[in-house]
Design brief:
The chain has about 160 residues and is mainly beta. The chain has one domain (about 25-160). About 15% of the residues lie in helices and about 40% in strands. The protein is built from 2 helices and 12 strands, in the order H-E-E-E-E-E-E-E-E-E-E-E-E-H. It has helices at about 1-20, 155-160, and strands spanning about 35-40, 50-55, 60, 70, 75-80, 90-95, 100, 105-110, 110-115, 130-140, 145, 150-155. Strands 3, 4, 7, 8, 9, 10, 11 and 12 form an 8-stranded antiparallel β-sheet that branches. A 4-stranded antiparallel β-sheet has the order 1-2-5-6.
Length: about 160
């Protein structure tokens, strides 16, 4: 009898794991707009990269204080462009949402996002690097500070380095 009682929760957990799929899977973006951002060596990574973005995000609302909220599916594929025959890449879910202040200098990213840290621009950590984040990131006065970030982050440049 005890074995039967233990089997039901175990089967339930296995079924949930099979149905849930990977947590970091990139969403499908039906009818999304696509565009590319090339960056030369030393701008975002030590090597040249290309960011291919597909976005179905739209501005959902503007709050009384002027903050805009943008939501919807979005993915980015970041590719190391160093070698023509072997181009390591990664595809990330960057669906956000995004909250932007009326002036545009302050941004809150409380979900999946990327933060582009350009060389020569003051930030903590310093650029160049691309951070894939999941949590609550804030950009104040146009600058990112890792000390105010809560969640997980990954340096995509390190992942794509040859």
């Amino acid at each position: 009898m005890l074995r039967k009682l233990m089997l039901v929760p175990i089967v339930g957990v296995i079924a949930l794991l099979l149905l849930a799929g990977p947590a970091s899977a990139a969403p499908k973006v039906p009818k999304g707009a696509s565009f590319e951002i090339p960056a030369g060596a030393g701008q975002l990574c030590a090597f040249p990269v290309k960011l291919a973005i597909i976005s179905g995000q739209v501005q959902r609302t503007t709050l009384p204080d002027g903050t805009t909220i943008v939501t919807g599916p979005a993915v980015v594929t970041i590719t190391n462009e160093t070698n023509e025959t072997n181009k390591p890449s990664t595809t990330l879910n960057i669906s956000g949402p995004t909250f932007t202040s009326a002036g545009g200098d302050d941004v809150i990213l409380p979900g999946a996002a990327i933060i582009l840290l350009f060389a020569g621009v003051s930030s903590n950590p310093p650029g160049p690097q691309i951070l894939a984040t999941h949590g609550r990131a804030t950009i104040e006065d146009g600058l990112f500070n890792i000390d105010t970030f809560t969640g997980t982050s990954q340096n995509v440049c390190e992942q794509l380095a040859e």
